[in-house]
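Exam revision sheet. Question 4 asks you to relate a sequence to its structure. Input first:
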Amino acid sequence: MSYINDALRRLQKEKGSPYEAYTHLVNASVKKPQRSRKLLSLVGILIVFCFAGAMILFLNSLDSKRVQGVSYTVDWPQKPSVAQKPESAKKETEPLKKRIVPVQQKVTKQRGDAKVIYAQALRQHREGKLDDARRLYKEVLGIDPKNVSALNNLGVIYMKQKDYKNAQASFNKALNIKSRYVDAHYNLACLYAQKKEMDKSLFYLKNAIEFDPQVKLWAKNDKDLKFLHDLPEFVSLINTKRN
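Answer key, structure tokens:
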């Protein structure tokens, strides 16, 4: 090895050598393969890292799109659905239904009973059993206070028994419920005729005729209106034809 070192020293001393200018090229050519390999290795590693980073970014972007898509569909307003009652609410409403049903059945039964009792009262009334009929009419009104037929017939019984105060009250109650109730108007005309209050009697008779012209036929032969028969106003009401 010493002879190589000696040769190199001589070469460096020989400044005027024609090869001195090319010594750096020779040295570069010797070192170039090693540097190029290192550079290629570095570039390769960088490419791998870049590719790996790009793939990671791409996969992350896909995941973010999936998440956004899910949140987007969830955020859309959903069609309202029928609310389901919780079990506790169902349990609370069931006893209420059980309480309501018997009440409805009771009302229906009472109305049915009222019709039966009214038929019994009417039969007693026609047979002249006024006390029994009056009691039954009151029983009907206890079940159905707005039964205008029972109120009217009860008034007729009171009037038959000369209890004009209660008779008048019964007829007026019927008219408060049904203002154009012909029977109540006609019976009030009879009541006031018996009391010889002619103006009031003619007033209610006129109302009855206006609501039902057939009343004229009743009035002509009704003994309860005998005090009106000779009055010009009565004759005019009976004989006037409606236009």
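Marking note for examiners. The chain is about 75% helix and 0% strand.
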